[in-house]
Amino acid sequence: MPRSTGSTALWRVADPNAFAALAIDALVGWPAWLYARVGHPVGGFARLIAACEVRWNRPAIPEARRRLSGVATLALLLAVTIGGALAVEQAARTIAGDWWWLVAALLAWPALAARSLYDHVRPVADALAARDLSAARRAVAMIVGRDTAALDEAGVARAGIESLAESFCDGVVAPLFWLLLFGLPGVWAYKAINTADSLIGHREPRWRAFGWAAARVDDVANAIPARLAGILLCLAGGGGWRVMWRDCRRHASPNAGWPEAAIAGALGIALAGPVAYDGVVHDKPWIGASGRAAGAGDLRRALAIYCRACALLGLIAGGVALLW
């Protein structure tokens, strides 16, 4: 298959860097020692967003103007990210020649979180299996925003499984999807959008106007990946289709319900339901309401399904690499 020489073309669907990046991430993740020394690239996004927020999101500024400022912040973030990624990709092609894709894989690797997600959820499962509820609460508090101090075993297991399913989309499937489509500019543009949404895309009065654009664009960026994530989890779990189609819209997010409903159906359990944030209980609808309460074994089963779903992703990326 002839390889295009257009170094600035965005369409990269035939490049093998996605498979290589996924393989690197599966092997080493983003080690703690590396994070301690160099941090993570999304930290740069966070600093730019924070600088714009301090300047343009003051309470005295009218809401309409703050919404426009939020649009400008996201546009600036994407311009810097995409421009930088295109420049780096051009340099990789020029310097590395036929091996440019390996350099691109190394640069895309930090955008994926397959290994890191497993490494964060596994301690929760281990603590539950050891019947150490205090340790399980501490471990799950590292990956969820809800109140965890009073969670029972079912609540901890449910929180871990929900986080695993939702993060499978925005930490693994979505970055790989945009990497396959648009190479480094695609994957890092997605990470910039996702970071902006996590920082300012909230409904609280402080963020509602300024973070509006980040939240809406993140919804669009995750629309296809979320549905792909649900399909992959059903395939990996050997079922869950009926619950996914029935309950995917019971989540407040237009996208997160797909992978959560898929894994709830595959495991035969109930997810979501009432949950507390900062001492306030929110009565969320149940997903998989006909299922039983989650337990320690279900979190281990969820991790096994997750690993198989990641393997399916690897087969897809490997097939693309072979076509290239």
From TrEMBL:
Which molecular function GO terms apply here?
Answer: ABC-type vitamin B12 transporter activity; threonine-phosphate decarboxylase activity
**Annotated Gene Ontology cellular component terms:** plasma membrane
Q: Print the keywords alphabetically.
A: Cell membrane, Cobalamin biosynthesis, Membrane, Transmembrane, Transmembrane helix
Which GO terms fall under biological process for this protein?
Answer: cobalamin biosynthetic process
Q: Is this entry keyworded Oxidoreductase?
A: no
The keyword Membrane belongs to this UniProt entry's keyword annotation: yes
Spans traversing the lipid bilayer: 68-87, 99-118, 168-190, 224-245, 303-323
Kindly list the places in or outside the cell where this protein is found, as annotated in its UniProt entry. Cell membrane
The main location class comes to membrane
Which topology term describes how it sits in the membrane? Multi-pass membrane protein
Q: Matching InterPro entries, A to Z?
A: Cobalamin_biosynth_CobD/CbiB (IPR004485)
Pathway it works in: Cofactor biosynthesis; adenosylcobalamin biosynthesis
Q: What does this protein do?
A: Converts cobyric acid to cobinamide by the addition of aminopropanol on the F carboxylic group.
Family the UniProt entry places it in = Belongs to the CobD/CbiB family.
User: Under what name is this protein listed?
Assistant: Cobalamin biosynthesis protein CobD
